[in-house]
Amino acid sequence: MRMDFDALVRAHGETILKYIRFRLPANSDYEDVYQETLVAAYRNFKTLKSENAAKAWLIQIAKNKYADWYRLCMKTMDIPLDNAPESTLSYGRAGRTVADAVNDALDRLKSEDQKILYLSYFKCLPQADIAKRLNVPIGTVKSRLYAAKARFRDAYPIKMTEETNMKTRLFETLPGYRITRMEDAPFSCRWEELMGWMIVPREGETLSWGLYDQPGGRRTEYTDMKVVGKCEIHGIEGVEIKAVQHDAENYYRTGSINEIERTFFAQLTDTHSRYLAESHVENGVRKLYTFLDGDSFLNNWGYGEDNIGNETNVYAHGILTRKGNIIIGGNGSVTMDVVGRYEVEIAGKKYDTILVMDVETFNDAVASETYLDKNGRTILWRRFNRNDWAFKRYGKLWTEMLPENERIQINGETYVHWYDCVSDYILK
Questions:
Q1: Domain containing 47 — which CATH number?
Q2: Beta strand pairing status for 259-268 and 236-246?
Q3: Which has fewest Cβ within 10 Å: 185, 264, 311, 352?
């Protein structure tokens, strides 16, 4: 007989708590992360297929939650999260894991530095309160904090490259666009793009895409990509892709000359598109992760059972339905499905598209809209946050932070539009 949720917590709760405590800094909010793990597990309990897989299933949820904790804390320190060594598959969006890199950097600091960074950036205490807690003058807090932050940056493994004169054709500000529901039935198409990076893993392909904040549509980063040749990873043939991310050192500084490079190895078959490996340089050392490296690869770049990848043959399965801005279906599990046919008008052009609705396949409390044309290419990608996403970090609901942005309802929950991505495909 299938165990109930209480029995699952009794059997594995202590192990999960120890797992989280081991990976977070001393005196951190590990109990909150543990509670968030249990809440997420309860919400998705129906997706647990086997009692034998319960422990691994809980550990995966815990990984996602402690990664969220690190990401949100480090964002307040102006650390380049978007370029973390173990950056997750992300559609050019937030939600990238940095826990291992941050742990390594913190471990290299003296306890005095760790303590003041924790109080200031993790607990968000005012400098006057830190001075009282440490029994030192506020001037000492300022100087210690400045020095500790500098030493953390030196220890953090992300290093930026030299200046470059590269420019992009992408919009600096995304033009206003219009999305109109069509009465026609959604068409089927071949969606060959790699999930999250929009490029097709095929020889000769190039692509640039940008990320645009809403409201306002200001570009905050962009990525240039190119397939440079064939490859073979553990006997599986594919292609090598070079990617250069621009402007990402400081998320809100458009025009940054800094860039980050990474290499993908991917495969396109008749039925699926998938990542085979990812490589980047960390502290002067080339790191390579392949599909045989277990969680270190699968958690960041894998998709589907046994990393089969995303299906290229896209059509409406009837799992989700959408009327206006209300989406229902999926039985509470993570879901991706075609929900309708839409005309997208942007930059003076009109596109006949289908809408692929993604509900939490990548990250808890995150949904996205991908508008595909008949060639299976992304015309527009839109990110939505559940109203309480990262509430602990921001202290506000997204309806409060972005009151004018569009809202949708997914199975009764409110999601708020955050930002968009488009590529130079629409400029060709």
A1: 1.10.1740.10
A2: antiparallel
A3: 185
Identity of the residue numbered 326? I
Does 243 lie in the same domain as 117? no
pTM: 0.61
- Domain range for 120 is 99-155
Q: How far apart are CA 355 and CA 369, in angstroms?
A: 6
225 and 371 share one domain: yes
Q: Are residues 69 and 109 in the same domain?
A: no
Take residue 276 and report the two structure tokens written for it. 């085979």
Query: Is residue 121 situated within a structural domain?
Result: yes
Helices (H), 282-346: 295-301
Instruction: Give the other-Cβ count within 10 Å of 236's Cβ.
Output: 15
**Tens-of-pLDDT digits for all 428 residues of the chain?**
456 888 888 888 888 887 787 666 554 567 888 888 998 898 888 888 778 788 888 988 888 887 777 666 655 554 443 443 333 323 222 333 334 455 566 667 787 888 888 777 666 577 888 888 888 888 888 888 888 888 877 776 554 343 333 457 899 899 999 999 999 999 999 999 998 899 999 999 999 999 998 888 988 889 999 999 999 998 899 999 999 888 653 333 223 335 678 899 999 999 999 999 998 877 678 888 888 887 777 777 877 777 788 889 999 999 999 999 999 998 655 588 999 999 999 999 999 999 999 988 767 788 999 999 999 999 999 999 999 988 887 788 999 999 999 999 999 999 999 999 999 999 87
108, 199: one domain: no
- Are 55 and 125 members of one domain? no
Q: Give the separation between CA 241 and CA 155, rounded to whole angstroms.
A: 29
**Number of domains into which the chain is organized:** 3
Within a domain: 92? no
Do residue 410 and residue 352 come from a single domain? yes
